[in-house]
Structures are given as C-alpha cells and as structure tokens.
Amino acid sequence: MPDRALSTPLDDSFERYLQDKGKGRGGDGGNYRRNAARELERFAEWTAGDRGADDWTGIVPEDVDREPTFDDLDERVFREYARHLGGNRGLKQNTVQTYYRYISAWCGWCVNEGYLEAHYAQRASAMAPLPEDDGRKPGDQQAWTSEQRHALTRHVDERARDAVDAYTTLPEDTDPVDKQRARYAALKATRDRALVFVLAYTAVRVGELLRDPDDPRRRGVRWEDIDLEDGSMDVYRKKQQWDAGSLPDPVISPLRSYRKLMAPSTERWPVFPTFDQRTLAGVVKDALADRGEHPDTIEKRRDAYARDLLLALDEDIRPPSITTDGARSILQRLTEAAEIDIGHPKHNYLAPHGGRRGMGEVLVRAFGYTVAARYLDNSEEMIRERYSHIEAGELGDVATEAIEETDIGI
Asked: Where in the numbering of this chain does the Core-binding (CB) domain appear (predicted)?
C-alpha cells in the first residue's frame, strides 16, 4: 500500500465517501449521507481523543503531535470503538449496531479505495464488544389496528364533508374574502383526508409519497403521477427507481373530490402541497418578482386573498409538497383531534409508517406473504421476517388446537 495513503488523515476521505453514498446530482442528498456524515464526525472526534472517557487520549501515540491517519487504524481500534459505543448507556442495542455499521461501511469503502489493506471493522475480534440484538420484533413496532384506522378515516371524512358543505352552501352575497376562507378550510380538510386515506390503504412509504429535503429526487407526488381511472400512482421507490403503486377503492373518492375542489391549473401541481403560510408567502413573492411585478403590486395582490395558497392556485405558482416531517405533524394533530387511544411506547399518535405496517398485517393475514410482499414492494423473505409475529400467533393457535384434541380424553 502506498505510504501516501497510510499517512492520509482520516477525515480527508470523508467527503469522497459521502459523495459516493449520497443521492442526487453530486451526491449531496439523501438520509444515508446525512446520518453517515454525523457518525463519521463522531468517529473522527473519538480517534482524536475529543470524545469518550475522561482518560481517553485517542489513537495517536501521546508523544506524537498530529491528527489520526490511516496508519493508526487496525482491528484493535475498531474493537475499542465498538466498546465505546456499547458503553454509552443512553443507546439501545440496535442503535449501537446501527452506528457501528456506518463506520464499518466507510472502512470497507476505504479498502476498495486503497486507504486500508483490510476491512478491520468486520473482523470478529473488532465486533466482539458490540451488544447483541435486543430482540425487538417487527410486531412490536406500531401498526394501525382496524379500529384505529376506522376511527381516523371516519374523523377526517366527517371533517372534510363538513368543510366542503360549509363552502359550497354559502349564500351568493357572501363577502369574497369570507368565501376564500371557506374554500381554504375545505381545501385543507380534503387534503388531510386524502393524505390519511393514502397512508392508511396504499401501504406506500411516506418517503415515496412526499418531499424529502435531503433528496432532490423525492419532490412529492404530483397530479400527473396519479391515474384515478386505473387506480394507480407512480412513485419513486426505495429501490431508487420509478414504479407504479396501487390505489384501492377507498382512496379514489377522497382524491377525486379533493382534486375537483383544488382544480390545479396544471398536472404538475403537488398532490399534497404545504399549507405553511411562511413558506407559501416566500414562494408567491419570489415567483411574482421573477415575473417582473413591483413589490408594492405584489403586496396589493396578496392582500386581495385570504391566503397565499389561493393566489398561488390562480397564478399557477406551484408550492412545494409537504415533507415527511410535515406529514407526521398533520397526523399528530388529527390523532389528537379524533381522540384515538394509541397505547404505544414510542409514538403517542398514529405515525405514517404505522399505516403501512397496518396494511401489511391485513394483507398477510388475508392473502399470505407472497401477495403482501408484492403490494408492499418488498421481498417475501423480508415480509416473512417483519411479520413473523403473525405466523407465530397462528402456529400458537394450531398448537392450542392440537393440545385440546390430544388431551380431550385425559
């Protein structure tokens, strides 16, 4: 191995690695890149002696004044780092494993790029201090029950119907601004209803449906991606390619009535635009300024509308889609308003991923693992693993029946 590689400071490799692992043009986006960057920074601090126990001085000999290089790395370093992660009592076992995997992946990349001669992080002695899996099963994770799904969809449906009725039954002499306020309320309620129904029944991942600020390719589903006649929706899948997802019957009507009320001027409008006023104000002002309008004229035009969203609709100024975090905030608000009992140790609301897992449970129980895997866009092996608690429960019922039949004459 070249001496140049061995004498290279560790953090000199980070940016190239992150670009290779990132998404989008230039490798600047993606959740993996963000999380890996965080863990690499922590690892670099630890190797320099800036993180860890009070008596930890890092991996560079105490009588040497330089930053850590690849020449300082061996399996003993990674073993010590695994011990450092495991000794952090605030981390769960699975979290320790996850954090170590980020560093291990970087180590493997360094071997391929010529920085290291061996994948030290994957050696058994290096990984020995890592805690074992904590035994948490997929069935322990939140999945919307049939009762919860019914309660939430009924709540948003009633709320949307009331808002639409209030808007469409306004007297003809209603003040224009009051009519705008009613339309805005109806749009927000029907958007929330459509979002809940899609999350509850399609099993599409929330990251495939909405905007991810860290991945420019995930800009949120647009109306051009949806075919209400065929019952399909094109989404950018987790496997990094576009694919069609199914829109079952319960989803069609909420989407159709919502689209009719919105009446977007083009099919490129996001299906689930943000309603955040600060964001919309900035988008509208920037768009009108780009069209050559004077700031005073822009403000007068904005003053004529109850909300910037309505001006954006009239002027075909496309706002961004809501983000995945925005969807979580909406579901927190709706869960609380619907007064749904959650009883889950991690989430006090119906989280987006719970809708997907809930549909997974329905499909596995009704049609088995193969059909569920196709609908959920996953391998059958993974679905069997994630929903193994269902098979375990069914086997328990079989065992109970066998015991009863065997012991009936005793």
From this structure: 5-111
Cα distances (Å, whole numbers) of residue 231 to 10, 12, 217: 51, 50, 23
Token code pair at residue 312: 């954006």
DSSP 8-state code for residue 122: G
Helix and strand numbers, DSSP H then E, in the chain? 18, 3
User: Are the beta carbons of 83 and 127 closer than 8 angstroms?
Assistant: no
Q: What is the pLDDT of residue 150?
A: 94
Give the residue from 262, 198, 261 showing the smallest Cα distance to 232: 198
Residue 64's pLDDT band, with cuts at 50, 70 and 90, is confident
* Greatest extent of the chain over all pairs of C-alpha atoms, in Å: 92
Tokens of 353: 């991923």
Three-state secondary structure of 305-360: CCCHHHHHHHHCCCCCECEHHHHHHHHHHHHHHCCCCCCCCCCCCCCHHHHHHHHH
- pLDDT tens-place string over residues 262-277: 999 899 999 999 999 9
Encoded tokens for 162: 């009331």
* Mean confidence (pLDDT) of the chain: 87
Name the strands in the sheet holding 226-227, side by side, starting at the edge strand that comes first in the sequence.
Answer: 226-227, 232-236, 242-246
Q: What is the DSSP string of 206-234?
A: HHHHSB-TT-TT-B--BGGGEETTTTEEE
Residue 313 contacts residue 262 (beta carbons within 8 Å): yes
pLDDT value of position 399: 41
Segment holding 144, helix H or strand E: none
Could you give the CA distance from residue 162 to residue 160 in angstroms, rounded to a whole number?
5
Count of residues for the chain? 410
Given a contact cutoff of 8 angstroms between Cβ atoms, the answer to whether 353 and 206 are in contact is yes
What pTM does this model have?
A: 0.66
The proportion of the chain whose per-residue pLDDT surpasses 70, expressed as a percent, equals 89
DSSP secondary-structure letter at 73? -
| Element of type H or E holding 257 | helix 249-262
SS3 120: helix
* Alpha-carbon 89 to chain mean position: 27
Both structure tokens of 258: 């919502």
255 vs 94 pLDDT, higher one: 255
